[in-house]
Design brief:
By secondary structure, the chain is α/β, with parallel strands linked by helices. The chain folds into 2 domains: about 10-175, Rossmann fold (3-Layer(aba) Sandwich); about 185-235. Helices cover about 45% and strands about 25% of the residues. It contains 9 helices and 7 strands. A 7-stranded mixed beta sheet has the order 3-2-1-4-5-7-6, with helices on both faces. A hairpin with a 2-residue loop joins β6 and β7 (about 150-160). The two termini are about 40 Å apart. The structure holds S-adenosylmethionine. It holds the Pfam family TrmK. This is SAM-dependent methyltransferase. One of its GO terms (molecular function) is tRNA (adenine(22)-N1)-methyltransferase activity.
Amino acid sequence: MDADHLSNRLATVASYVPKGSRLADIGTDHAYLPVNLLKRGLIAGGVAGEVVRGPFENAAHEIQREGLTDRLTARLANGLKAIEPADQIDTVVIAGMGGTLITQILTQDFDRLAGVKRLILQPNVGEMVVRRFLMTHGFQLVTEEILAEDGHTYEVLVADRADQPETYNDEELRFGPYLLQEHSAIFIAKWQRELARTQAVRKQVQQAAVVPEDKVAQLTAEIQEIEEVLHRVSA
Ligand code: SAM
């Protein structure tokens, strides 16, 4: 992969960046995403934020090599601290991390999102905490996409600023309100794997010398929930 050849995962994320945006890509690594969008004339400019020096230097080098330093700035900073008011960022991407870390980054410096209208988040795991964050912090999910690449399944969550985001129940938060409607083969395969994994964990827990009944009950509830959803979407 490079800035001219994004993975399907990053290309999907890129496809939800509104044309002409001022973008902050937080945890940018090589800055392939913003460099790609800028080279194609799809964003006006922005910031490539990285907290680790090695990837930050990769990003800075990539931006310089492509001659984009006048419109795209690499910043060594923790999370949203990479964003300054003068950047006039309106769109933020955080991709390729766990949902808990994404949520921590967004919560830590929430005030820095003041001018941001769209969040495009791609948690590798822990999508539920991300959806809950959006719902409780004034962002309405507008679309979700699920894709498979290189043996992994990824979800891309797109949310826009809203006065009163829709309230979702636990099932919608866990599985995704849009993905639940779609019945895609990738979604079904993901939850079949998750069902098998949860069943295996329950079996193991049940073999303990002292069986933790609370844990068994919790796993049983999860298994039932997944089975119900799979039954509905496979029907
Ligand atoms: N976003 C790219 C992608 O989706 O391909 C890179 C994903 S890479 C797995 C995660 C990157 O996030 C790493 O380069 C890591 O250093 C960076 N990162 C982790 N925590 C961060 C934070 N708090 N602030 C900024 N960057 C962070």
